[in-house]
User: What shape does this take?
Amino acid sequence: MSSQKNLKLSRRQYFFLIIQSQIGVGIIALPFDLHSAAKQDGWISLLMAGMLITVLMFFLWLLAKKYPDKDYFQIQEYVLSRWGGKAFSVLYIGYFACVGILILLLYSRMISLWVLPNTPYWILSLMMVAICIYIVCGDIIIMGRLYTMFSGFLIFMVGLILYSGKDSKLIYLFPIAADGWGGIFAGIDKGIISFLGFILALVVYSVVDGNSKDKLKTIIYAQLTVLFFYLSIVFVTFTFFSTKEIALVSEPVLYMLKSYQFPIVARIDLFFISMWMIFVTTSLSTYLYMAGLGTRRVLQKKNNPFIILLVGALFYLLSLFIGFDIAKLEKFSNFVVKGGYIFSMGLPLLILFISLFRKSPKKENAV
Amino acid sequence: MGFFKDFLQKQQRTDRRIADESAEPQEPSTRSLSDNINYILTAFKRTEDLKVRILKKGEAALLYFESLVDQEKVQLSIFNPVEIGKVDSIHAIPNAKESTNLEEAIKSLLRGHAVYLEEGSRQISLFNVTSVFNRSVEEPANEKVVRGSHDGFVENIMININLLRKRIEHRDLKVKLYKVGKKTNTNVAIIYMEGLADPEIVLNMQKRVETIDSEMIQSPGYVEEFIEDSPWSPFPQMLNTERPDRVVANLMEGRIALFTEGSPTCLVAPATFFMFYQAPDDYNTRWYTGTFIRLIRLASFIIAIGLPAFYIAVVSFHFEVIPDDLITPVKASINEIAYPPVVEALVMVVIIELIREAGIRLPSPVGQTIGIVGGLVIGDAVVRAGLISNIMVIVIALTAIASFVVPSNELSTSLRLLTFPLICLSATLGFVGLIFGFLLITVHLTKLESYGVPYFAPVAPLRLTDLKDTFVRFPIFMMKKRPKDAHPMDYKAMGESREWKKNEQSKKS
Assistant: This one.
């Protein structure tokens, strides 16, 4: 077992970690959200959001490259001095916990709406949290292996979605930008939410094998893959439903799949939602991992399953306060999305900016 | 704290080792014959199968266990030379082992040797006259193949090693013998290819075998629980096999084999999940066939653990998944049944397990009857009585058959055990529960390690080149590298073996 402990993530695992952390709860409602802001031009918003994130990732990479053997929390402590960094880390833990709770809430709501209407919230979320704790209790390398394996389901999902593409009518995408660019820019906001898991790329950067240039390539490829996946979903749903219809269906992907029946099996949406659960698990695990890592760094403890258990229990107990309550969920979701801008974009850029004025730890380490 | 704990443990361990070495008893023999014999007799608590033959009118004695020695061998190697007149006395026979340590004599008596003592001499002569009873190296009943070698390991460890040496005629094949079990003193052999097996894993295995502190060692299954990584896991982490060809193939991949005296089963480590799905048959047929059979086997894994759970989830939660044309027959068969599908499934699974267990214990002619009575009669009657729907009978029967497809008995039993939690999960939460169950199993498989080697390799961690021999079987000449999961020291397994083809073509042109 000792031989496994110091293994670094391979770049392939890094690639899938980034992908799996981003693809999560959002995909089912993504087209609806985009549409509510930008009408049929939602895909342009998504494209622009994806490009924006890719540029942002480049800056995050600059930050990570500067401190190649420190994880994000250690970078904070280094750049912002010890206690400043710790304060920031605590904020980050709070943020990751909020996102985790939001994922938990959205997932349980979706399952309750589509599959198990009578099951109480606490059971659905308890099982999810339990699985995630079990995953995260392993090393990051275990997570890398798992995420790589689970990515096989991506092929099935893409297959199902592309199959639905046979009934698409391109005419629904027109007219392009009829209502001006205001709506499209508003849609960028909705698009960015679905990419927010990208902060993981920065957090685990230090444990990935390879030189910084290759890592950048991996990050960019992963980002483009996710963008491509989202685009395919949005394209197919936008061309499947007309502009008026899509405003009525809050989960367009599922409604679209529901309309098909194969000779051996009907209700493909149920299978889709089952696969989607796996992606929810992975993205929730990512946030649990990051929150756990932050806690470990703040408390300066070694890898301890007890901390993960504690953080997981925290996720679960806090999420019980909201449960299926829609009004609270909306408020909370808005709050978390605002936080996303600060924590995934604002603060890393701020730290990058400050780090420019501090010298690198060791020149020879900076590759 | 951890440091102290380590320190203390190390202290204890070294202490014990020293104690063990000093416990090696030394008892010099005396010049008095009767004292020597007395010492030996009391050591054996005057057991009555220890025979003392008085020779030379009371001047000498030959001691041996009647139950352990072969009388013919005694005649041949001890009395014949004297009778022919080659040597003057029994002490002078050249193939005897000399000693003056009575404790050594006691040990060799237990091994089936004969001990010769003389009045007025401290010399002890030991003769190897052990009788051995061996069955022939027949094909193991639970690992039959259609084509390929038909021999199997037996209960004698030396014959087993002989079977391996005959197949690997190379100086790198290394055998390490251990005595495990304080009272039973069972021979345990660790066998590996030096320079191919990862020395770290070999060392690890040796350490684990050495630390076994048990009075008795019975079988490899017994040893396995002492030396495997996660005893709480439902999955076997060492491959059990009775086939020499399978062991040889694994040795050549850089794995380590472990034999115990008295059992034909060999343990192979480090094992991966997919090793349990490889059978020697795959490599004896054409590779298309091999691939096809292997795919069927792996599909059987999914069926064996997931089919009843899936069916229950469908009929009790997601009826809408069934296409329109099929709804009527399924619904019709279920409607009449009084019990919920979970109860049906659990009852059927338990019945099948009962039949299986009864069939194993009974002699084979009766076993077949049980199969017929249990399978046909009960199955038919249960449906007619309206206790269980006929689709459920199909599902459970299919599941049972699928679980028997696994070439390894250990994995097959674990699979059947895993069905139960999955059935319960899907009966309570439908597809959601099923997904949770599968997630739990895959996460567990990914986390599991066998001797520091990931158990679910080459899928997690993914290694594309090793997939050539996992879900499919590529032609053998294309598998030029050894699988990485065994950590071999040398990855190259073969060079270009079909060079002749290129040569032919270049000649033509």
